[in-house]
Amino acid sequence: MSLPTGFLDELRTRISLSQVVGRKVTWDMRKSNQGKGDMWAPCPFHQEKSASFHVDDRKGFYYCFGCHAKGDAVTFVKETENLGFMEAVELLAREAGMPMPARDPQAAQKADRRSQLVQVMEEAVKYYRLQLQTGAGAAARDYITRRRLSPEAQARFEIGYAPNVRNGLLQALTQKGIAADLLVEAGLCARPDGGGTPYDRFRDRIIFPIRDGRGRAISLGGRAMDPNAQAKYLNGPETELFSKGHNLYNHAPAREAAGKGKPLVVAEGYMDVIALVEAGFTAAVAPLGTAVTEDQLRLMWRIHPEPIIALDGDAAGIRAGLRVVDLALPLLEAGQGLRFALLPGGQDPDDLIKAQGAAAMQRVLDDARPMVQLLWQRETEGRVFDSPERKAALDKTLRAALKRIVDPSIRGHYGEDIKRLRWELFGQNGTQTARKPDFTPRKPGEKFTRFAAPEPPLASTRASALGAGAGGAEQLLESLLLATLVVHPGLIARFESALERLELAHPGHDALRGALLRHGHRPDLTNFREIIATEQRAVLESLFGQSHVQTAPPVRNAEDTDLANMCVAEALAKLHARRGARREIEDAVEDLSGLADEGVTWRLSQATEARNRADRSNLETAADMGEDRTALSRHLQDLIDGQVWVKKKN
Q1: Keyword Cytoplasm: yes or no (predicted)?
Q2: CATH code of the domain in which 222 resides
Q3: pTM, to two decimals
């Protein structure tokens, strides 16, 4: 709805900003000058003791010199009440006695009808509240007492009782002049299939009024007193006022509490919300008898950027959480996500708070996990990945899930987390450094120490050409490999698998490798080096500052993709072979028990020969294949994929 020109100006003229703000602050009268409309108070938007919040009543603006919050009366109501723009305008307009702009006749008629239905719902809430105090409500009162609902909680949530009679509400409200058709239209009564007098929809049930974001009663929820009832919980039907998938229980109070800094906790049902609120978690909401819908998710995000979904700790709770994950993935935006709190032992929030108190619930919320972890758990829990095929199936499933994320930045960060979790699962750590055997003679009784920390290089070594780059022959190969991929990004996709598995000794190289894998699948790879530089500028400058990188043919010849392809395959083969050989040697040393057997000797010789084959591969294969660079690259890639340095089991 658009507002006519001048409406907001007139509203601001009629409203006293100091009066609006005064409901939320305590003025510092020593600093304020009420006659001039110059008012000061501690800021309501951040915690402080000094009066740094200034209201200029004549100009109609406020400003905080501490947190720099600023705005007018509409902005203040929006921020403090957590309302939308039009809701804030309507609230202030009612206060100022200004009618909201007229809408078209059909819209006005519809609004009048909705107002009638709201009034009918309010009368029903009053009726059911009274019935809870009658003799017919004795059993309901006993149940509420057993659930430890205080009188204050009953009053706050307006809990009532629907007697076990067919026409109790119908007779009570029609006697007040309310038409039966309105009761049916509001969802309070239903007509028999064969026609005739309507009957009460809610009977022998504890009643929970459902209000919208503006605090208007729009429907009811009922908990059956009869344990054999067909439906334990019953919500009102879809009406002009009420849509289950577009509303949340306790919406308005939760929105106000979240606006004051409380975390938004999403529970399963009415009693969970009431228990949370009573325990101090006042920004608590629940869906209304359905699984969380897309509209409800968007509604939650309008209340708080990162709702916490409180899941019952049983299998059904986990399944419900995973449905929310699937729903949320395409909707994620920067600063807009979900966290999941898993409750112990199949309990719900009501159970946990009653058994262990608010502190236990707070611990559960503090341990809430990001959504990516729940996604990872679903795909890996209880499964064994002991073959390449199973690992590939996991990768395929995860890629499909990540493709559903629309925001490219979030998709990239999810990919990073998934890769980290994958490496942890499969025992691969790209930053792991090689260990060095320690053959230092032992003293009598001293425990054998197999490995010692590498000794720092000598100054002469650091100053040499070999040590000028990253500090060793393997790091020279790393530098050349990464620089070549930066210059030829089209090769990243081909060598992605080998690049992921490669152990990199230099931390900067590991960070650069991550950037290459993140951006290597871009459809447009122009200006690739500049894209990488936005994340890893210092590493790139150090990399391309090395003389052996600057003079390397694949780096100098940006157009020669075949040469670069061959050099990348060669560098990967050598690095995998060298590090594979070292791991075999380390494992063999661990197997030594004073004497080496033939198996250990064979492993050492095979590891050494594999490394030598990789080192000779370029010259020997070039001699065998002539100038066929594609065949050469394929041969080198086969060496990597075949892991020729590892002893094959019979």
Answers
A1: no
A2: 3.90.980.10
A3: 0.56
